[in-house]
Design brief:
With 351 residues, this protein is α/β, with parallel strands linked by helices. It has two domains: 134 residues, Rossmann fold (3-Layer(aba) Sandwich), CATH 3.40.50.2300; 160 residues, 3-Layer(aba) Sandwich (Rossmann fold), CATH 3.40.50.2300. It has twelve helices and 13 strands.
Length: 351
């Protein structure tokens, strides 16, 4: 009887041990599953890689997010608004927590981003604002100052009392183009300037294509007009304009300013065919965007005093500073910062 009772007691203890072990395993499994689900899933929807800087933006952004352990999903729309809508819906199906979006068309993503927001997904506009959509935050540069700064630099450098200027704006579907244009006119309209400046022509470059810059410069020069300066909304447009100026043997004589500090623009500055470009530290932009995306995921406070209206909301706006670059500061700002290598900037001339 004693042995039987001991066996029964041992069996009960064994059963209890097995049940406890099973509970611990189940609990551990749940914790592991919870840990996996706690990894931020960040979707990135980029418009295009046509402009040199976007490839660098994406590489830095993915690197910043990956270092934090986030899972990153990337989609490239190749300048197709409908494709971008479809790709964002794919990101929604993948159950991402945050979507970082560079829109092709500022006004074409409202419905699909509303669908994403209804699924609890947070939206971050990266360098281009999305209109009429539930955007949680917008990170970009001081786009009005970009237009103001490059225009002011051109007007300081011109020796003509009544200069003739050609304005080549960016893509009208990109709200940055509007903000840059506003900055250009702020500089043109300063007291003592407005009445002295002639706007020879003003065009908009659909999809930021340089062909519009080429056509505008060619058309104006062919009509017999004289140009003293060209304000181009980015370095690609400046390149198109300078190619035509070179054909007319005017490269370096007509001053050209733009933005982005692409390697080709920096080369033109040291070679003397372009006056200035605007340097935008995209490493800071990418790092800031990654930080904001993770704060949105964690439902933390977005700390910025600036806002911008996107047709529906006052969106928190992280406005990063920029610097106008010319021969006087290109070594310090571009080379010393590591943005471009000295041997690449001075590829065709001696430093």
């Amino acid at each position: 009887m004693i042995k039987t009772n001991l066996l029964k007691k041992s069996g009960k203890w064994l059963l209890l041990l097995l049940m406890t072990s099973l509970f611990v395993l189940l609990l551990t499994g749940c914790k592991q599953e919870d840990a996996i689900s706690d990894v931020p899933k960040i979707g990135i929807s980029f418009d295009t890689f046509v402009v040199e800087r976007w490839q660098r933006d994406l590489e830095m952004l993915v690197a910043q997010l990956s270092e934090t352990g986030a899972e990153v999903f990337v989609q490239i729309a190749n300048e197709d608004p409908k494709k971008q809508q479809d790709q964002i819906r794919e990101l929604v199906e993948q159950k991402v927590d945050v979507i970082i979006v560079v829109p092709n068309d500022a006004y074409s993503l409202a419905i699909v981003l509303e669908e994403a927001a209804n699924e609890g997904i947070r939206i971050l506009s990266y360098d281009r604002l999305v209109f009429n959509a539930p955007v949680d935050a917008y990170v970009s540069f001081d786009n009005q100052y970009i237009g103001f700064g490059m225009t002011d630099r051109l007007l300081e450098a011109t020796e003509k009392e009544n200069p003739n200027l050609l304005l080549i704006n960016g893509d009208p579907k990109d709200y940055n183009s509007t903000m840059i244009q506003e900055g250009v006119y702020r500089a043109l309209d300063l007291p003592g300037r407005k009445e002295k400046i002639t706007i020879a022509d003003e065009v908009w470059a659909l999809e930021w294509r340089e062909q519009y810059a080429r056509e505008a410069v060619e058309s104006y020069l062919s009509s017999g007009g004289e140009l003293d300066g060209i304000i181009a909304a980015n370095d690609v447009l400046a390149m198109g304009a300078i190619e035509v100026l070179a054909k007319w043997q005017l490269a370096g004589k007509v001053m050209v300013v733009s933005q982005d500090a692409e390697i080709s623009a920096c080369q033109r500055i040291v070679e003397g065919t372009q006056l200035a470009t605007v340097y935008k530290p995209i490493n800071v932009l990418a790092a800031t965007a990654a930080d904001i995306a993770l704060k949105l995921y964690a439902d933390e406070t977005i700390d910025t005093e600036d806002t911008i209206h996107n047709g529906l909301y006052q969106v928190p706006y992280y406005k990063l500073p920029v610097t106008v670059i010319d021969k006087s500061n290109i070594d310090e700002m571009i080379i010393d910062s590591g943005f471009h290598r000295k041997e690449d900037v001075y590829l065709n001339v001696q430093p």
